[in-house]
Each structure stands twice: as C-alpha cells, then as structure tokens.
Records
---
Amino acid sequence: MSPESIVGVAVGLPFVGALAILALGKWPNARDGAGIVTAGILFTLVLRLVEPIRDGLRPEYPILEVLPGVSLSLRVEPLGLLFALVASFLWIVTALYAVGYMRGHHEKNQTRFFAFFAIAISAAMGVAFSANLFTLFAFYELITLCTFPLVTHHGTPEARNAGRVYLGILLTTSIGFQLLAIVWTWQLAGTLDFREGGILAGTASNTVLSVLLVLFVFGAGKAAVMPFHRWLPAAMVAPTPVSALLHAVAVVKVGVFTILKVAVYVFGVDLLGTLPSTMWLAWAAAATIILGSLVAFTKDNLKARLAYSTISQLSYIVLGALLANEWGIIGGGMHIAMHAFGKITLFFAAGAVLVAAHETDISRMHGLGRTMPITFGAFFVGSLSIIGVPPAGGAWSKWFLGMGTLEAGQIGLLAVLMVSSLLSLVYLLEVPIRAFFSAPPEDADHGEGIHEAPWTSVAAMIITAGATMALFLNPGPFYALMTLVTSR
Amino acid sequence: MTDHLPVLQVIIPLLAAVLCAVVRRGRITWAIALATTWASFWIAIQLLMRVRVEGPISYALGGWLPPEGIEYRIDLVSAFVLVIVTATGAIVTPYALKSVEREIDAAKIPLFYAAFLLCLTGLLGIAVTGDVFNVFVFLEISSLSAYTLISLGQDRRALTAAYQYLIMGSIGATFIVIGIGMMYVMTGSLNMADLSVLLAELGPNRTVVVAFGFLTVGISLKLALFPLHLWLPNAYTYAPSAVTAFIASTATKVAVYMLLRFFFTVFGAAFSFDVMQLDKVLLPLALIAIFTMSLVAIFQTNVKRMLAYSSVAQIGYIILGISLASVTGLTAAILHLFNHAMIKGSLFMAMGSVMYRVGSVELEAMRGLGKKMPLTMAAFVAGGFSLIGVPLTVGFISKWYLILGALEKGSWWWTVAALVLTTSLMAVVYIWRVVEAAYFQDFPGEEGAVVEAPYALLIPTWALIVVNFYFGIDATFTSEVAGSAARTLMGLAP
C-alpha cells in the first residue's frame, strides 16, 4: 500500500472494526478477537508510515470538499504520526486489558462498549492525521460525542450527572471558543491548512492574535487547562479501560495535541513568541500544573487522584507548546508519548485492584501489595515515569521541557516543574509504598480468595510498564520525530 | 410542456386538491397526494436546474404580458424555496399515511389531503409569482388551509391554537394587503420588476415608507419574528404530527422568502437598508429571539412545544443573517431556510413516531424510549446534533456562514458570533433533556407495551436525517446555490 492509502485506511479501519464488533456481538470471543486484531493491524499500518515521514514525505489523503475552500482532508506530519503511534499501540494493549476487565467485572452492554471504543480510536486517528483545522474540529467533536456513551456506560444517575459535566464542558469550550477561533482564522488567513511556519503571521494585530490564541488554548477543553478541567474527574465514572486509554491517552492527548499543532502549524513558533498572551497562558498552564498536583493530594479515591495527576501533567505539554522554542515543542511532543505509557500503566493497575480486590480507595489498599505484587510493581514503574526520574521514559520529556524553560529565560517556570515533580513523587509513590509496607486495614479481607487480576489484564500492565522503562533506554524514535517537527 | 413548468408547479396541486375533495376515499386521496407532491418535487428540481443554467425564467400567465398580466418569475431564490417546500411535501406525504390514520377521524382524511394540497399550492404559488397581489392571494390560500390542518389535531386545544393563528395570521395578511394597496396607489403597478423600477424613481415617498412599515409588520407576523411569534408554539404543539412537520419546515420559510422578495427585489437593498435602516430593526429582534426563545425552550415539558420555541429561535438565526446585509449573511440565511427545514422536519417526524406509539410527546413519555424505539430515538439524536450544529451536519454549515458573516463586519460584531455559539450550547441543553429521559430512565409501562415505530414512519424520518448529513458533509451544492441567490438579491449578479 502506498503511504497515501495507508493514511486513509488508518482512519477508516477502527470504524470498520466497530462494525465488525457490532456484527459479532453474539459471540463474545470472536467479538473481542476482532477488536484486538483490528488494533494490531492498525498499529502495523501506522508503523509503516514512519519510514516515509523520516524520508521527508508528507502523505496526503483528501476526502472531500465540504464548502468551497474548506475540506475534510488528511495529511501526516511527524507530530501527528507520533500521536497516532502511541494511540494505536496502546489500543492493542488496552483491548487486551479490557477483555479481562470487562469480563472480570461482569459489565453489561459490552458490545456497545467496544464498538464506541473503536469509533473513538477512529476519530483520534482522524485528529492525528488532520490536514486542516476543520478536519481536526470535526473529529474532535466526534470523539466527544462517541465517548459520551462510554462515560455514562453504567446508566446510573451518577453516570448521568457525570455525563452532563463531561459534555457540558467539552462542548462549551469547543463550540464556544474553538469553533469561533477556527472561523476567525478562516476569515483572517483565508485558509485552515496546517502549514510549516504557520498561517496567521501578519494577518492581524497582535491584540487580535492574542485573543485568538486564548480562544484556541481554552477551546481545546480536552487539554483540561484550569478552569475547564472538571470534566476529567467526572469522566472517571467510566469503566477503567475507558479511563486508561481514552482519559489518559486518546481523548486528553487530542486536546494537548490540538494546542501543539495550532502552536506550530497555525501560529508558528516565531509568531507565538511575540504575542503578549503567550506567557500569560504559560503561567495559566503552570498554575494548572501546581493546583492539579495539590488537588491530587486530597483525593483518596485512586482514579480521582490519577485524574488530577493527568490534569497537572497535560499542562506540562501545554506549557511546552507555549514556551515557543524548539526544546519546549520537543519536550511537549515527547511528553505526549511518555505520559501516555506511564499513566495508562497506573490506570491499568487501578482497574486491576478494582477487579481483583474490589477496592477503589487508597486507604483501603494498604497491604494489598503482598497479594498483588505485579500490579503494584507496575504502578511503581508508572509512577516513576510521571515523576520524571530514571529508569522511566518520563525523565526525558521533563528534561527537554526544563531546557525549554531555561531557553525561554523563565526560571520561575522551571521551579514550577520541579515543585510539581516533588508533589507527584509524594502523591503517587504513597500508593505502592503503603500497599507493600503498611498493614492492611482491620476490617479488610485481603487474605484468601484475592489474587492478581485476569491474566490478560496483568499482561497488559507488564507490557506498558516494560515499555515505560524501554523508553528511558531508547527514546530515540520519538525524539527523532519531534526534531523533524522543529527543524525547518 | 417544459415551458409551462412554472404554472404546472401550482396548477397540479391545486387540481389534485379539488380531486381529493371529490373522491372522498382515504387511501386514494393519499395516493393522489403522494403522486402530486413527488411530481411537484420533480418540477421544482427541473426549474432549479434550468434557472442555474439559463438564469431567471419569466412566464406570462394566460399569455397576458407583464406588467399588465400576471407574471410568474422564477430566479434562484424562488427555485431554491420551491425545492425546500416540495421536498418536505414529498417526504411528509408517505409519512402522513399511517400518522394521519392514527390521529385524524377516517371521515375527515380525504378533506385533510385536500387541505394539505391546497396549502402546498399556496406556498408554491407565493414562491413562483412575480406579482405582489398574487402573493397575497396565495398567502391566503396557504394560510386558510393551514388553519384547517392545525385544527384537525387530536387535542381539543388544537381548535384554540388554530383560532389564535387565524386571528394573528389574518392581521398579518391584512397588513400585507394594505402595504400592497399603498404601493399600487403610488405606482399603479403590481408587478414586482415593474414596481422596483417605479419605486426607485419615486424615492422615499411618505406613502411608500408607510407601505414598507405595513409590509414589515405583516410579514414578520407570518414568519413569527419575535415578538410576533405568539401564534406559533400552540399551533406547532397541537397540530397533527404530519402537519407540524410540514408547516414547521415550509410555512415560515416561505414567509421569509416573502421578506426577501419585498425588501430586496421590490424595494431594493439600498432602500431597505440604507434609507429605511431595516437592519437596525431586525438585528435586535433577531438576537432577542435567538437568546430568549432558546432559553424558553429549555424549560418546556412538551417536546413539540420545545421544538416550536426552538423554531422561533432558529428563525432568529435566519433574520440575523438577513440583517447583516452582506452576501455572506444572506447566504447563511438562505442556506438556513433549507437546513432548518431538514432539521426541524426530521425532529418533528421523530416526535410524530413517538406520538404514534406512546400517544404523548410530553418529556415524561420519552422515558426509556432509547431501548423501546431505538431507531426513532437515534433519529431524534441525529437530528438534534444537526440542530446543535455538530460538524458534518447541515446545522454546522449554517452556523459557519452566520459566524463568518458576523466576523466579517469587524469590531464588536464578534459578540454576535459569540451569542450564536452560546445559543447552540443552549440547544445542547434542551436536546439533551430528551436524550437523558430516553436513555437514562426506565420505561414506566409494561414490557412490550411500546415497540419501534412502523417503517412507514421510520423511512421518511431517516430519509431526512440522511439529507441532514449528506448536505452537511458535502455542502458545496447548497452553499453555491445559496451564495448565487444571495448575490442576485444584493444586486451584484443578474
């Protein structure tokens, strides 16, 4: 297949997978097999794009023209490829994990669940490979809508309320801010294409462009920059595989990816550096980094703590984009990958505890490490990556982000990164340390009958934890892709 | 034969209506209506194609040449409106078969179809004619038959709703005929093209100004511009389901067409906007309509009434587009005529299916229908997405042009764009109240009491949904037609 056709197939394939899942609904094994196979094919396809991209090709796949000059169109560039690689690889692992989880937890409506899950991946691929802002926006909204049934999967009043917050914030920001910014960009620049060096330079006064940047940053509500972050903790009512892949990788990364892409290909790094609102927004991201970490401390529910940790970590990437220099962009892009592997491991572990021991609160997990050593071991490795210390991949992205702050001459922002790492050290490592070394709570029954989660789930955790460490030893591929983004 | 298409567009439904009244057999009259609406649809498509290639068509009725005789004149705007009206008719008629049999006494069904076809005749007539008095005649034909159709609703409140509409509509029609009369007094002509020349020569004469005022108020009443919309919510709520779907998609659209015709063609954009400052009147009313009516829609417990208030808000979008007085704004308005017809048509048809099975369209009646009537509710959700303006639906296309039109005006106009987006979010709220009832609450009745709607209702509903997405994904055709129509009206192209 030519690179061009791979691009089109990569976006369409998960959707076809969703149809297959619906068709095979009566045979759970065949259905789940179809999901995993689709994920595997998708990843191998995306992998085959790496070579052409490195050679300087930018395969395009125009779908159709919606309005004169506004088209649905795909185009692969290095940043999008990086995101697609991460999302498609982790989909395989999550598909594996989800089989164990959904069955172990006796969830209902599994067919609907897996089908919408696949559609969400299809849309994430669409965002990753979008050639212009319109295409990005269309797939962005598709993700919001097709993850709604996943968030509200249990259909309880609690899920319904969470769904309201989820949809309310994501649609308010995307329709209210992002769409306005996109139409405005179209009016100013006469194009919506992502172009090297940006399209907005010289089209309007710095004041207007500053406003536009604010609209884009807060309009990407999926990036969860405060005060538009509440949807993410709300989304945690979803089954854990959703939290793991969608609300730690696909959905939230779509938000920060949008910001990175807008920063690099719509504004352009040079223009970004001259806008007055850039630094102001960088400090908003810095505030989110610190506040997110602080709130994470107060959460005893493990998934809620992880959600606030994600909010904090996402703003690292937003900050990287807004530093408006090479190191910031590289660090931000790599953090998309590094955070994804680390955080998905943490969510897998949280889900495994829920399935095996039926516990959700950290204070009730004391002593569980002895019965579930693999789970908490994986959690430990994942935590290291989020904190950003060796031997985990997160160390690299934080290193580059730190370099970016120095390059921008913002010692204050460097201090924010350091403080946040220290905070995450405490709130994350508390979990495995208590699990291994503290005595179990008196009324808890952690003895007989509790063992590790189903093997597919355990295998998934081992893979992602292993990958986290491998990325420390060899971050090369992702680094190489990101240097392609910044080099001109 | 093809030369006579303009008059056939009106004559066929008119004669078919008479035929229905004579035949008096339920199913046969339905078949007549079906054949008629599809024939009309075909004619409308032919006319649109011809106008696109050859430019405006002028047809002298009975061979009497204008300006003395009645001229039928079809340009892009009228051809586009003809397509909207006939397409809705062609989709609603198959839907009407089962829906009407359920909601209307068997004895009245033949007369129902007669009234329906008369209404269609009137609406089409307004769009084809190039004669202002003829507009009034067709307006009365369509209005009187619409009052009849609405009064056929099951609920006895349909009678008061129809009566209310009758009073308000008649006031509107009277204002219009007074305006036309004054123009005739001043110019001695009733032909639109002729009038536009004569009025321009006359300048801002006081009688002409008063005529302009009477026409503005009269037409605004017919198109339900806030605050003259009071007849609309009751009429939509209590009319039979098929009638609501038809009237909501066509009647107000044709009234907007009248507005365009009078203010752009007869008076001319320069007179309407530069001299009369019409935009300064329309803009605030449109904005108030968009905001307050969306807000009111949120608090409705009857879903049809909720959609009715939403319609008043959506008419506000159309009027907003007109009040921008630019090509982009006008394109947005004309596009939204079509787009909103498709959106509201599909939503009201979905509600008609609920009415058919559950017998109520109160919000409470929606409970658990996500499982009981999955295809119907999926259609409602899809139509709702289009109403909200999710990308790749027609609703998005309208909003795109509307926001672009506002931003093009520069300075503080971005606030108007922001208001449009805010009200889209209000649409999310009122659509989602239905979604939550349907998907998050349990069905209160017995198991098996409610099943999916019959295909006779589902297929037309989904046909409109497909249209919603088709012209949302590839809007090059509709936007090109609407754009050319807008340029024609602004006097920038022939």
---
Amino acid sequence: MARKNFDEILKEFVDESAEGLQRLDMLLVQLESGRDSATVTDIFRIIHSIKGTSGLLGLNNLEKLAHAGESLLSEIRDGNRVPDKEVITGLLRMVDSIRAAMELVVAKRSDAEFDGREVIARLEALNTTRANDTAAPSLESVTEVLSNMEPEAAAAPAAAGIGGQHLRVDVSLLDKLMNMVGELVLVRNRILQLGHSNAAITASSQKLHQITTELQEGMMKTRMQPVSNLWDRVPRLVRDVSLACEKQVRVEFEGGETELDKTILETIKDPLTHLIRNAIDHGIERPQERRAKGKPEEGVIILRAYHDGGQVCIEVSDDGKGIDTARIVADAIEKGAVSAERAARLSEREQKMLMFVPGVSTSADVTKVSGRGVGMDVVKTNTERIGGTVDVLTPQQGGTCFRLTIPLTLAIIPALVVMSRGVRYAIPQVNILELVRLSADQAAEEIESARGCSVYRLRGHLTPILYLHQELWLKDAREEQEADGANLVILQAGSHSFGLAVDDIHDTEEIVVKPLARQLKGLTVCSGATIMGDGSVALILDVIGLARRVGVDVQNEAQSRASAQAAADTQIERLVIFRVGKNRRLAMPLNLVARLEEFSRGKLENSAGQMVVQYRGGVMPVVPLADVLHLESDSLGCDLAQVIVYEKEGKSVGLIVDEIVDIVEERLTVHEAEFQKNIRGRAVIQGRVTDLLDIPHISDLWPSTAHKLAGVN
Amino acid sequence: MALQQFCTFRVGGELFGIQVERVQEVLNFQAMTPIPFSTALRGLINLRGQIIVAIDLRTRLHMPERSGEAPPMNVVLRTDDGAVSLLVDSICDVVNVTEKTFETVPVTMSASLKEVIRGVHKLDSELMLVLDAEHAIDVGVEMPETDRSSGAGAAREPN
C-alpha cells in the first residue's frame, strides 16, 4: 500500500514538473531578453519546488542539480550576476538535464543512475563570482521568497494547478468519459426517433435531450486547451535553432487564446516544430545577407491562430527569402517523385506542394537542423490524420507562410442526414450553406445544363450541381432524380460553393465521428462514418474531397474572392489553362477540347506547307499558337510538344502550346480586353490575368498560318 | 507436436481455415452500408457500437458472385487495426491439426488464391486452405480519375 502511494506521489511530481519545465524554457528565454523581477521569481519558484519535492522523495542527485541552479538564480535575483547568453544556456542545459532525470525516475523509480555532475559543475563555474554563496538558502530566505511572490502569483495566470480551483485529471479518464458521452448521444438520438404518445415520456425525453446536450458541451470544453499551451515551448525552440544556424530570429504570437481539442493540439506539435525549424534554417537569411537586402538583421517568425468557420487556422510565417520552387521541382524529379514532363505541366502551387513528398527537400544542403526531406512529410501526414489541410502561401511582402487548417474537434459534430438511393449519408453542418427544394417543374426548368455540367441559378448566382448518386456510384441518375423534383444541399468547399442533389433530406443530428478503417483510407469523398439512431452505419461525406474530385480548386482563394465581388455577371466554366511564350497565360473552355496530347517534335511533319502529325490513323494539322499570337515559343528545345486537340467541323486540329498549366472550374468575370486578335476577353484566373482564346477565329486564320509556315520553311 | 486449431469455412466450394486465435466471433448476415468505389469491401457493419468493414472473400479471391439464396456469414477477425469481417458462404467446424499435415501452396494453384494462402493442411476428407489473414484484408478502395463520363470501375450499386 505504502509502495503504491509512493508511486502515485512520484507520478504527480513528474507530471507537475513537466509543466514547470516547459514554463521554465519560456521564462528563461524571456529573462535573456531583459531581467525583470517577476520572471526571476517565477523561475526561482519552479526550480525551488522541484528541488524541495525531489529532496522529499529521496531523489538526491536531482535535488543537488536543482540546488545548483537555484544558487545561480539567487545571484541573478540579487543583481550580482547578469543573465547573459552563457548563463541562460547553462540554465537551459539544467532544464534539459532535469527532464532526462525525470525520465529515469519514471522508469527506475529512483534517480540513483542520474549523473548531473557535469551540469552542476558548469552552473557552479558560472556562479564563481560569489562562490561562497552556493550554500542552500536558509529557511528564512525561502519564506521571504515565497512571501515576496504571493501578490505576483495572482497576476500570473499560468500558475494554475496550485490553487483549489484546479484539478489534475488523467487524460485517459477524460477520453473514456468522452466515449461514454458519445454513446449517450446515440441513445438519446434513438429515443428521440422512437416517437411516443405518452406526454410524460415526451417530457422526460426532452429533458434527457437537453441534459445530454449540455453534458456533451461541457465534456468537449474539458478537452479544449488554448494554442498558447503549445506555443510556450516555441521561444526556446527558436532560440536553440537560431543559435545553431547563426541567425537572429524573433518570434511573435497572435491569437494564443484560440482553443483546440487536446488530441489535435498534440498532433500538430510535431508539424509546428518542423515548420518553425524550416523557417529559421531555410527561410530566414543570415544577418549579413539580410543587411545586404535592406532587411533588418533580425528575422521575424509569426505564429498566428484564428477561427475560420468551424475550423481553426494556424499559420507559421517568416520574412525570409521565400520558397525556391525550381529547387523543389528539381529535387522531386531527381528523387523520382515526378517525371520531368509532368513537373513542367504542374501549376506553381502544385509544384510547391511537391515539397510534401517524402524525401523531397526544400533546401540544397542538409544541415544539423533540417534538410533531409522528412519534416514536410510529417507536417502533411500529421495534419491530414486529423482531417486538416496544409497550404503554402506566398505573401505579397515576401517570405513564406504555411497554413494548417484543422477541425475544431474530432469527436461529435452536428450533421445533416441525407438520403440517396436508400442509403443515408451525413454531411457536416459546417459545410452547409442552405437547403433548396425544387418541384419537378422547377427542377426541369431551373437546373440548366451549361456546357455539360448542371448549374442552378441561386438568387442569380450560377451554382454548379453535383448528383450524389452519380459522384459516388458513377451512375447517371440525373433525369429520374429530377422527375420528383430536386433536393439541393448547397455546400461550401473552401471558398467555392456548389449544390449536391440528393433524393431526400432528413434531420440534423449530432453524430459521433468514427474514423474509417485502414482499408478505406483512399476514400477521399468520405471523412468518417457514424452510427445512426436506428443502429445502421452512415458514411460522413467529405465535402472538400468531393469538391476536389470534381475539379473545384478549393485551395485557391484569391481568385474566387476577386470573382465573388463581381459575381452578378459571372459564368461558370471549366477551362484549360496553358502558357504560350514566356509569360502569356491563356485559357479555353474544356468542353471544346477533345484531348491533350504530347508529340515528339520529330513526328511533326511538313505537308504542302502545313505542319501536320500522324494521329489516330489519320493526318492532323497542327498550328504553333506562338506563331499565331506573334509570341516567341520557349519550348522548342523540349523534345515533346504539348498539343491541345480540338474538333472543328468534324476534323481534329492541334494547337501547339508551351505548357499546359492547369484545368480549373471557375466563375468567370470576362473583361472586354482592348481589341486584340484571337482573344475574346480577359479574366483573372487563379489570381493571374489570363486571356481567353477565341477558337473559331483561329480556325478562320488557318490558311494564312499555313502560308506563313510555308514561307518559314 | 503442437496442436493447432482452425476455424473453417467455405467460399466458392473451397474449404478455408484460419487460426482460432485470430477469430473474434462468427456472426449471421448483418445489415451493411455500401462503400463507394470498392468491390471486395462490401460494406460497413455496426458491431456493438464499433464500425467494422466487411470484405467479401469471393470478390477478394476473384470468384463468381454468390447466387442469391443464402446470405453470407461473417467471420470477424482480430487485427492490429481493430476488427475486420470476412464474408464467407458458410461456417464449418473447428478442426485440430498438427504440423505433420501441412504443405506449402501447390504450385498449380491459381495466382489469385496463392496470394492469400499460406499453405494447405491435408485433412482426412479434403484439403483445408490456410488463409493468410493479413493479405486477405489488404484491400483498398479504387477511386478512378475524375473522368465524368466513364462508368468503368464502378462499385456495386446500393440496392
């Protein structure tokens, strides 16, 4: 019995100290930037309590170490020693050493094997100025310290856990309770669905409903922690890494009070560490380099957290040199992650995303800190494991910004239950904008088919419509579905919206999200499953995944923000975006394109003064678009010519372009460009000005192009 | 000689066996929620509050579809990632065997079977194929590229 009590006390000590040590990291870094008595007192208190308790538990080696630290600190407190870099490094070393000792204590239940002599020697060396003062402080001086800090303790909110207002609870117990609340929610749902005629039962079940909801909310709150809990360790990390990299870095925080589920917080710990390390090692330049560029010598890393709808965004941005996309692409090609041809056709954002492929590094040199190409993979996998996404942004003012978008909580979410072909699906409420019910007549009339895809005019805005049954089971169910009218769920995916046509719309329910089995990992259109009130299983639709699958570029916000402003006179089109010449971006409607092909330039032949290629058993004329637009092609050195094949009066025609950039679904705001041949207008697509190619016009030009080519040859 | 116990069941006329230690339970047909973009992954089952995936061994072994009359049975396996159910035609006895009757996979066996079979035990009346559970449950969803017009590779439709 006594043994068990000792273990419990030991565990409590280790847990409490872990918190204290993390705080020490932060406080010591704070102290380095300027001595103020509150910080010193805080540090002193933490070390003192570790020293006191370890002595009590017979952990003598640990006690000696803490004592040496305390002695040095008392010198600082009394103003006899300046907390310079050397002193802080020594004290941080002590913190690390105490941590190591704690691990030993957990494993061996004693610190007999712990050797802190080296660190103690170092601390004493730092304290030589007043060597004879290293004796333990007398009881009076301790009481003095304690009484001194009394008023300050109230001012320091992080000193929680000491007062009677807080309780230490094992996380596994909370998890268990959370699971039980989850089950309770399911039972509640079931009872509510049963329906009843007895007034007393109705009243009781309403009460049950209310209590369950409140209980659930309370439970969720117990698991929420402010992001600042995670951020407390960042100053230490930044200090260590920037010293190792010989750089000057300052870190700033915004929105530390934003709360997140504990498990989520745990999961993003590693990604954040990697991002910060990368930012210092690869992003921020050395002081002399920064000076040469006219930037302040000290680089800045900003950590920002904020709520965005039902999600939390966490950003890590730096004011460094930005990302070398070419370097990433080269590395990805070298590591075999992507072929050179394919890489050349990726959009810039897609090229940047290559950095998340395992083995691909953003930096040319492997340093002690990073560059092995592992980190970014960890960032992506960890974030996706909790249903989040990672984005790389390139801020206008330079530098790099990584944004993690993560769900607020994982366990219980409100969701709309819909029916399609007798199967129920749950759609998370956060993704839903509104519901639209159309009668059969309305559906026939108001759902229009615009170039192969269905659209609905929602208050004048064209909203693309997806048919759930068709998207999931690849069966065209459109017509029969509209025979009885249409139920549209208008969904928000990133910054786009689209309508999902389903057979029937049921209630909104609180659902308990259960992860999908390993076998279903590739099912990107579903984010999980849940058990309904009647005991059956329903899949939870992943709205982002669904949107991505049909080509809605959910990550690109700038473009749609721009187009949203001018939404009144926009139209939705699926476009092929390509490049001709150095930086001319053009687009043409995808439905006019028959195929995208690559031909070896050796295969391009000259027949009667016209460039042709043998294609599908026939001969197809091809036109270098660069010649038509009087631009200079920059892919002539490339053996493969990128060709857009389209049909004109039953015949195939090929257009040679320099690069196929992307295929997008876009609300277009077409600006009338000043008169320009072969261009029907101009629009902003993916944040860049893009010319819309006028196809028929080019075909008319065909004979003259042929002449020109004949002349050249 | 160590005695081994196998839970046996039939799929497409063949007798299969799996170590009893691996089997959590055997269940009658359960209602399932169909899974898009999958063939062998037949559906999701609510097993006392736990959602598990059911893999149709017939589809997994490229055998013809089950003819309508008898619904499949569930053999629920314990795996490192939680329970997984195998859909089989019928459940047979638990048999005791020793190493003596074991042989490696006959070379003439079809490739699709070989992939998930560890070997065979020669029972008195017939051969029992020893299922390699890890391989049998190693299947995933197949999401075709978004070619909107294509119906190829489509999963079983919910009825």
